Amino acid sequence: MREVPNVARLGDGVWSLPVPIPDNPLGYTLVYALATPHGPVLVDAGWNHEESWQALTTGLESIGSNVEDVHGVILTHFHPDHSGLAERIRATSGAWIAAHQADADLVRRIAALSGAEQSELELAQLRRAGASSEEIAEYAQLEPRIDPPPLPDHELSHGDTLDISGAKLRVIWTPGHAPGHVCLHLEDSGFLFLGDHVLPRITPHIGLFPFDDEHDPLGSFLDSLEQISTVDAWALPAHEQPFTDLAARTTEIIDHHEERLSTLSAALSPSPATLWELVVNLPWRKGWENMHTFARRMAASETAAHMRTLERRERALREHGPDGVVRWTSP
Which residues belong to the signal peptide in this entry (predicted)? Predict the structure, then answer.
């Protein structure tokens, strides 16, 4: 577990408020508070847990404010460590919530599924990926998924400009980690709120789920890394710590994914291979053999995203077998 840092004043009316994520190796989410005459506007909200709520309220009090004063919450994306407390903040203060329209659309689709429907969708995807019957049965015993986040009051689009106390906060759509992930450029102050798009030491999860969807999240992520690398700003991520030299870090992440793409491409042959058979060719921090089925599904989702990019680059061919399992071959 990472040590949670202190509240930090970054200048020009911007503070970072670390909000813990209990029992999670990420440790905390950096929620950023921007001062406005109407009360603070938050970038992200943190995990929905009482310990997280207490840290957020204490953090706001330390900068001379409180939750009741919050004017708005801008979500970089819908994941629960970023959106979890947004509804509680809105209920307490009457604050508006803003998020990209692609994430709002996804939240609506998730909310339309019952718990049983969502569970069956995930189990069906494990079958299509080539997981064993034992692993599928193990996954079926996991706890129910977290409730979807609240729908935003305002849906954002790429290039939108928000007026934050007379300063321009520009929305940069950076899909990949989530369909509606955005970075936010406070242009006059030179701050760039990155969410999970670029982190200083780890790479965000880029997954394809369901595995047979036709979009290319990794390709979109790589394109948006190229876009963000040209922004001259102080990089403020949602995890770890602020950093400089954004261009160098984006290059490292691109190189990381290109290496994985090459490894998977080299593993292909004329003999069809399932996702479960291909995923073992990649290095995983804990080792594939030591991973729980939930972690394996995440790894498979990430591998599927790489396979989709290889398909788009005409370096892999996908086929759907009569058993319903998806397999790939070399072109």
Answer: none
Coil, strand or helix at 96: strand
What region does 67 belong to: left with phi over 0, alpha with psi -120 to 50, or beta?
alpha
Q: List, in order, residues 6 or more apart from 135 with CB less than 8 Å away.
A: 126, 293, 296
Q: Please compute Rg for the chain using Cα positions.
A: 20
Q: What are phi and psi of 170, to 5 degrees?
A: -95, 135
Q: Rounded to 5 degrees, what angle do the CA atoms 279, 281, 282 make?
A: 75
Rounded Cα distance, 321 and 277, in Å = 15
The 3-state DSSP composition of the chain as helix, strand, coil percent (nearest 5) reads 40, 20, 40
Looking at the DSSP bridge assignments, the partners of residue 195 are 237
* Residue 234, both tokens: 């102080």
Residue 226: the pLDDT is 92
Q: Are 18 and 7 in contact (CB under 8 A)?
A: yes
Going from the C-alpha of 99 to that of each of 4, 104, 221, the distances in angstroms are 26, 7, 18
Predicted confidence at residue 57, as pLDDT, reads 98
> What integer best gives the mean pLDDT of the chain?
94
Domain ranges within the chain, ordered by starting residue:
8-107+145-252
- H/E stretch holding 62 reads helix 50-62
Residue 311, helix vs strand vs coil: helix
Contact criterion met (CB below 8 Å) for 203 and 253: yes
More confident residue, 289 or 2: 289
Region for 166 from its dihedrals, namely left if φ exceeds 0, alpha if ψ lies in -120 to 50, beta otherwise: left
Q: Is residue 31 within 8 Å of 21, Cβ to Cβ?
A: no
Measure the CA–CA gap between 83 and 76, rounded to whole angstroms.
Answer: 9
Selection from 241, 248, 289 nearest residue 26 by Cα: 241
